[in-house]
Each structure stands twice: as structure tokens, then as C-alpha cells.
Amino acid sequence: MRSSRSFYRLKVFFVLPALLLYGIFTLYPFLSSLLYSFTNWDGLQSPDYVGLANYQALFHDKAIVQAAKNTLYVLAVMVLIGNPLSLILALLLNLPLRSRGLLRTLFFLPALMSLMVISISWGFILQYDGLLNAILTLFGFENGIQDWLGTMDYALPAVILILLWQGTGFGAVIYLAGLQSVPRELQESAQIDGATGLQRIYHITIPLIMPFITINTFLGIAGSLKLFDVPFVLTNGGPGTATTTLGLLIYKYAFVHESYGYATAAGMLFMVLIAVVTFLQLSITRRREVEM
Amino acid sequence: MRKIRLSLGIAELVMLLAACLFLVPFLNVLLASFKPSSEVFDALHFPSSWEFAHYGAILGEGRFAQSLFNTVVITSLSLGLVVLFTSMAGYAIGRSGRGLFQIVFFILISGMIIPLQSTIIPIFKLATAISLINTRTLMILLYTAGAIPFATIIYTGFVKGIPSEMEEAAAMEGCGKTRTFFTIIFPLLLPATGTVIVTNVFTIWNDFFGPLIYLYSPGKQTLMTLIYQFKQERTTDWGPIFALSVIATIPLILLFFFVQDKFLKGLTAGAVKG
């Protein structure tokens, strides 16, 4: 019945709309980018074929190395600090509190604020005559005053702080979904056997919500690697190259320096990097998932 | 028992306080939108008098209604198309073994790793060639295409969790397969639909770069490009910008508050069977 020819035809018909739309607006543009990466196109005049020259030049590009360092720094913080923070927040939001729904919405709020609004409100806090410095002055810490987004040492940490603020609630909501799928009986029987709260989290909860750890880690890694918009709007990659990520650098190569062929070549290598890292992560965390 | 209830009460209080601290960046914008223009940039103090003038300025602004309409139309039609197309595709893939449909699945989710920057110019050229540039239709198609990868993962995982006896029973009754999908299976996918909507609605509603690049006529602007324009026009008078930012965020807060439970259920199924 399932393998009947008419059902097969129906299934083909069912995947066509998504496949068509995706093919036209994602795959086709992507593949034409791939072709441009072998040319010296500037986005305006007709492109000339230059073979692997763009790719060779990339390996001697110091700006790429700096941007890669910034990107990996963001990635490390988001995965090693942001992800556990989300889990802790989810465990707290999963307590039988009266205002659960409200609390969830409040902590999720940064995830649904637009980049425009975030850049306005955080600019307000971090600029030199902003809220943070006003509070520092109020409590007599004048020495701690900084132009938070305008100093080499603090700009990237400030951007990461904003990303953590934005992402923690979102990650927590995904973990909450996982926590609600953990059967209550397991927790209760472990409690009767005398397991403490922390032991229960470590031996029961964490193994059972592994699929959600996979999802969150994946979204965290893919999001950090592709990061572009927050530094673009808040600092435009500055001061100097302090907050220039790989995604932002590629954007600048294409639209500021108008070396489109070179930018797409960088984009291709960048994509290979994303693919390798996320594939490694998925194969590692998938293996640790347990069957219910 | 009483001890537990007391410690929960304290936990609740601590969480609410933490949430308030967490929300300072949003409260900033909210408070500033009610301040007289002279106090808007003084973040440390509450408004000396609560004013609605900035909201009045927004509602009296001719471009506001148009951009709200554009945003609502683009967002809802994009979500509608994503839900329709990816639920159909997810059903076909979830009801197939290895082979052709597995390949289709990998093609559809490959977009998770494609960096957006590398497709901007080809899309611009393509849209110009098929005369879709500067149309709301283009935005709808782009958002739909962009949402396909993750939504396909969610729906495929969810379909695998639904026993196929349903369809077999419907076939016995003489119900056609297409009708079976739309009348029996699709309603069962509701939690997954909730997840797909929640994971995309904010991205689409809040998107700023898309309309900035692909829509350049004044009548086509969205709420986000309107905020951006305000910033360009009013370098000193920021009150209305804050008011507009609040207005643009409130529908999303309400939406999340009311669908969060469904959203959580959909994620559970999708992640476990995905």
C-alpha cells in the first residue's frame, strides 16, 4: 500500500513546491556564486575567468586570519558559556512556579526584539554618555568608565554580551521543551532511591535531553559562525578590526571593496568551514543520545 | 511541604527580579517612548511626566499604516507558504525510506550552512531578470525559501512520529491520499506548525536587510525600514523612533505568550524523531 505507484507519484508532487522554490531562490543563486568565485568580477563589468587565483590569494590574507580569530572567540563563548547558561535558566523555568508563562515570555523577549531595536537600546546603554557609565559614576567608579563599543579591548566582549543576552532565553525555551519530555516517573523513582537533585540532573535529565543539546549546540555554532548583523549595525566591525567577523568581512569585500569574485571565493571556503564544524559537532553529540 | 513552598516563593521572586534586570535594554526603549523629548536621552531617570505624544506622532504618520500593512501581509503570506510547502514535503520524506526522498531531504536542509552574503547579488540579478525586484512578492518568496531548511527538519521528524495506521484506515474508507493528508494528517501536525511559525515569525517580521536591499519604493517599506528612515530623518528627535520600536515589538510578545505551549510540544517531537 505504501509503496504503491500512485502514492510515490503523490509524494513527488508533494516535495515539488518546496524543491522548486528552494532551487530558484537558494540553490541557483548559491551555484552562480560558486561560478563567480573563479572570476575577478567586481559586480559591474563583465567577469574574467581567473581560475584558482582567488582561492590562492585567500591563504595569504591577514584580514581573514584576524576575522577567523574573532569568529572563533565568539563561537567558543557562545558554546561553552551561552549553552550551559540556557540549560540552567531552563531548569529554573521548569520549577513549578506560578508565573511560569510570564517568566518564559520575559526571558524570551530579547530573542523577539528586532536588530534595529536592539542596536538602539544597547547603543543607549554602552555609549560613552550612556546608562552603564552613568551607573558606574553614580556608585563612584569613575575609573571604570569606558567607551565600551569604541575601545579595542572591550568592543568584542560587548558584542558577545549582547549575543548572550539575545540567545540565552531562546536556548532556554528549546531546553524547556526537552525537560517537559523527561518522564516524571524516572525522576521520582530516582528520588526514592536517594539521588540528590544534582545527581538526578547529571544522570537522568542530561542524557535524556541530549537531542536538545544537539539542536542548541548546532544553532549556537551555525549562528556564531554566520554572525554578521549585530557587529555590522553596532560597530561596523570596528574599532579597527576588533569586531570584524568572517561573515562581515565577506560582506565588506563584496559591497565595500567591490571585489565580488574574491568575496564569493571567501564565502565558499567559509561554507566548507561551517559544514565541517557542524558535521563534527552533530556526529559527536548525536552519538551520545540515548533511546527512551 | 511548607518549607518547599516557601523556597519556591523565594525562587519565584529572585527569577522575577532577574527577568527585570535582563529586560533593562527593552525597558529603556519603553520608558523613553513615554518621556518628553528633552528627557529621551537621559536613561537614568524615570519620565518626569508620562506623555503619549510620540505615539500620537506615529499614528498620525501617513507611512505608518502602509508599512504595518506591508509587514503583516509579507509575514503572514510567507508563513502560510512555508507551512503549506514544508508540511507536504515533510510528509513525503517522512513516509519514505532511503533513496530519492532522502536525497531531497539533504538538498532541502543544505541551506542551513549557506552564508547569506554570498547570494545577495545573484538574487538581485535574478529578481531583476524576472521583474520581481522591488515587489512584496519577491520578499515573500525569499522568506519562504529561507525558512524551508529548518521547517523541513521539524515536519519530517514530526511525521515519523505519527503511526501510518491512520492513512491505512482512511484508505479503507475510500478516502483519497491527498484528501487524507489535508483532513487527517495536517491537523495532527499542529504542534510542528506552531514550532515552524514561532521559529520564523520573529525573523521575518524583524528582518531589516532584505527590505533594505530588495524594496526601494516608499510605498513598499516595512516597519523595520521605516524605523531606519526615521533614524536618518530625525537625528535629534528620537521619541517617535522609540514609540515605533515598541509598537513593532508588541504583537510578537503577545503571539509568543499565547502560543508558547504548542510551540514547546512541536519541538519535542521534532527533535526526538528528527
Describe the model.
The complex is a heterodimer of chains A (292) and B (274). Chain A is mainly alpha-helical and 292 residues long. Chain A contains 13 helices and no strands. In chain A, helix 4 (100-112) crosses helix 7 (152-179) and helix 8 packs antiparallel against helix 9 (197-208). Chain A is globular and about 75 Å long. The model of chain A has no long low-confidence stretch (mean pLDDT 87). The model of chain B has no long low-confidence stretch (mean pLDDT 87). With 274 residues, chain B is an all-alpha fold. In chain B, helix 7 packs parallel to helix 13 and helix 10 (190-206) packs antiparallel against helix 13. Chain B is globular, with a radius of gyration of 23 Å. Chain B has helices at 2-22, 24-32, 53-59, 62-94, 100-109, 120-129, 136-160, 165-172, 177-188, 190-206, 209-214, 223-233, 239-273. Chain B has 13 helices and no strands. Chains A and B meet through helix 1, helix 4, helix 5, helix 6 and helix 7 of A and helix 1, helix 2, helix 4, helix 5 and helix 6 of B. Chain B: It is a multi-pass membrane protein. Chain B: It is found in: Cell membrane. Chain B: Its main location: membrane.
